[in-house]
Amino acid sequence: MDNTTLIPLILGMAAVTYGPRLAPFIFFSNMKVPAVVDAFLKSIPVAAIGALIIPGAFTATPDMPVAALLGMAFTLVYGLFRGGIIIPVLGSVAVAWLVLTMA
Amino acid sequence: METQSVRAALRAGIPIFIGYFPAAVAFGILAETTGTTLVEAFLFSAVVFAGASQFIALNLLATGMSPLGIILTTLLVNFRHFLMSTYLSTRIRERATAWYIPMAFGVTDEVFSVLSFTREKLSRGFVIMLELTAYAGWVSGTLAGFLLGGFMPPILTQSMGVALYALLLAILMPEIKSSYRSLFLALASGALNWILVSADVLPTGWSIIVCILVIASVGAVLSMSMPREENAHG
Lengths: 103, 234
Fold this sequence. Notes:
With about 100 residues, chain A is an all-alpha fold. Chain A has helices at about 5-30, 35-55, 65-80, 85-100. Chain A is flat and about 50 Å long. With about 230 residues, chain B is mainly alpha-helical. The model of chain B has no long low-confidence stretch (mean pLDDT about 90).
């Protein structure tokens, strides 16, 4: 990456990242949508989060995937009985850490 | 801004901070070792604020790709946020539309996920503070990684890699426990993404877009045909 500055590249990347994040707020905010579109929009979070977790979580600890899997198993089991975010997140890190340390 | 929503936002943002910080440290280290200056590394995180695309940009720079090619790739990789903002624009009802300008900047995968399943009204104070917490983790991690290098024990860094996935799962749990339809949709989306990623036919970032479009359509059909099971959120 010789002497040329990366700043124009960074600004270009910022623009094409921010544009799609902003446009819906400007154009769709006060739009009345038919029920079927509303049902589609309401399904976006579950669809997105499912795809964000799988298969990425399977390789979250690349040297030893089972560590991440056991961490996620903790989050899953904990979440079946209790709610909250902090304990499931810290617990999953602790489990992965234990598995990696003992391996 | 209301103290209560600020406090709630900080609480909701801490897990994102925990996940972002080590990932940003890794980005800072990679930026430093590939010859990026401190200012450039800082700007990447401060003005782009999109994890995966920043790593991809550094890799593509090393291959000698033109800036235009990298910018186009970034557009493709980050376009999923268009769908996420579209959903959020139905939840965040802000009267002073100027507030959309900072709010939209912070729409990352994790911020979107937390906001999606926040039951209370998404107030200006809550959204902005949540985003600032995530942003602080990302920018400070980048600087720490660039300046301090590998100061974190490798095993700790690797175990913290599971934090963001655990966060997403923890956010999803109450929803999939209370709705079989949501459980089915989340699993179907993960399965479809797994297939698409394994097949390796789409550019990076587009498998998630395809999953959202396909699975949310299925969700729409399901809820139109059997509307009785009401989702708790939204």
